Request: fold
Amino acid sequence: MLADLDAQLRSAASRLGPFAGGVRYIPRVGSTNDVVAELAEGGAPHGTVVVADAQTAGRGRHGNHWFSPPGTGLYVSLLLRLTRPPAPLLTLATGVAVIEALQTAAALEASLEWPNDVVAMGNGPSRKLAGILTEAATEGDRARVVVGIGINLRDAAWPAELVHAAASVEGVTGRPVDAVTLLVELLAAVARCYTQVESGAMSALLARWESFAPSSRGVAVEWMSGQTRHQGVTAGIDEQGALLVQVGSRLERLTGGAVRHVRSSGT
Reply:
């Protein structure tokens, strides 16, 4: 992988922005996010990238385990050092980048579910193709952000709880996908999207996110607040990346937690 990776990175350098020169490949790690965080503590620069073929302690939001066996996925973490730390917006921007990379490298049309899931399109229950984990820490007047991306490339011996919840790029398309090509297109798409985030020109990017997220409008959802279960109908996202939900006559603004789709509104 390394020789092909280096060659493709050099060929695409003009499109990769800060990610052109800092890609490290490690075949097996505990968590790529943890490796990048350790590198950051040692002074690694903005744009450092770690990519692995397997993780033994991969994780998603809320401490959930991310199943990361060897030979079946692409596991990537990026280091960002920013003066503006809009972590929720970085998560949404990364989702757009993953969709665009899958379109380019695998001819796969997928969709987004707020805030961080990339799912296979279809009429049945959502099946996750990829997930995003953004972890931020403050360093003086700047933010250090580690963005982790896990993409299921091939079907695996899924644990029982994932058999009907997970999907892979090759499983959906019926075609093999080249991991290096997908990685390069992912970094190029992330560089494009992050430029918009850093410039503050978010309206077009947020509109693009919504265009990839049909469930962000007109779909019934439920969520927990403390010990109370709430329900409402999605009404888009706001300029900070919060999910808007219509609950009776009022509009709720959700900024975190787990949201479950319960049914289509029929619209």
